[in-house]
């Protein structure tokens, strides 16, 4: 993610997923921290659908 538009796209996509409680995105660190009981794969797939590269 290189801009606020990118982080907003990820924020919107994750906020639509039922079970996501909190989302913390840092453009500086290039990280997304999600508080949820959902499987990790569900979160990663949601981020990938925005077109962003996911590093585990």
UniProtKB/TrEMBL annotation:
SUPFAM superfamilies (UniProt xref): HMA, heavy metal-associated domain
Signal peptide region: none
Superkingdom, natural source: Eukaryota
Keyword entries, A-Z: Chaperone, Copper, Copper transport, Ion transport, Metal-binding, Transport
A Pfam family reported for this protein in Swiss-Prot or TrEMBL: HMA
Biological process terms in GO annotation: copper ion transport
Keyword Membrane belongs to the record: no
InterPro entries membership: Copper_transport_ATOX1-like, HMA_dom, HMA_dom_sf
GO molecular function: copper chaperone activity; metal ion binding
GO cellular component: cytosol
All copies of domain HMA, residue ranges: 1-55
Family membership noted in the UniProt record: Belongs to the ATX1 family.
Protein name: HMA domain-containing protein
């Amino acid at each position: 993610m290189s801009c606020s538009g990118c982080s907003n796209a990820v924020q919107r996509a994750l906020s639509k997923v039922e079970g996501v409680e909190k989302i913390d995105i840092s453009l500086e660190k290039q990280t997304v921290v999600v508080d949820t009981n959902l499987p990790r794969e569900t979160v990663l797939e949601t981020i990938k659908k925005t077109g962003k590269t996911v590093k585990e």
